[in-house]
Amino acid sequence: MAEKLFLEVVTPQKAIVSEEVEIVVAPGSEGEFGVLKGHTTFLTSLKIGTLRYKDTSGKERYLFINGGFAEVLPDKVTILAESAERRRDIDVERATKAKERAEKRLAEKRENTDLTRAEVALKRAMHRLNIK
């Protein structure tokens, strides 16, 4: 049986996850990283992506993470996310519409369109849809 570590995923609005887990895999700004109990301590920023973890029953769980920071300690991982959603809480219809809007803005290439904002919106929508 794998040793456990504690995972906390917190947004400015609420705690999303607060439980013992076997492993955490997160979208670090420099690339994806995995954490098991006993990992070296570090801090890193997070990019938009999917946070995966295996709960104590061995079931793989998925969350959409909209950037933030991770603190890794030997027995705990704390994720401070700008926003986060469990896979079951993602509104697929809303994400699909957001993806379509962003794609339309990028295709039109209007002078007053904030392309960076549209690209980030597209990335968020695609990540939400890919973990569904």
Number of separate structural domains: 2
Q: Which term fits the overall shape?
A: elongated
N-to-C SSE string, H for helix and E for strand: EEEEEEEHH
The assigned structural class equals: alpha+beta
Proper CATH architecture of the largest domain: Sandwich
Provide the residue-averaged pLDDT: 89
β-strand number: 7
**Uncertain ranges:** none
CATH top level class name of the largest domain: Mainly Beta
Strand order of the largest sheet: 1-2-4-5-6
Q: How does the major sheet shape up?
A: 5 strands, mixed, barrel
N/C terminus separation? 29 Å
Detailed description of the structure:
There is one protein chain. By secondary structure, the protein is an alpha+beta fold. It has two domains: 5-87, F0F1 ATP synthase delta/epsilon subunit, N-terminal (ATP Synthase, domain 1); 91-130, Single alpha-helices involved in coiled-coils or other helix-helix interfaces (Up-down Bundle). Helix content is 25%, strand content 47%. It is built from two helices and seven strands. It has helices spanning 92-108, 115-130, and strands at 5-10, 15-28, 31-35, 42-55, 60-73, 76-81, 84-86. A five-stranded mixed barrel has the order 1-2-4-5-6. Strand 1 (5-10) and strand 2 (15-28) form a beta hairpin. Helix 1 packs antiparallel against helix 2. The longest helix is centred in the C-terminal third of the chain and has 17 residues, at 92-108. It is elongated and about 55 Å long. The two termini are 29 Å apart.
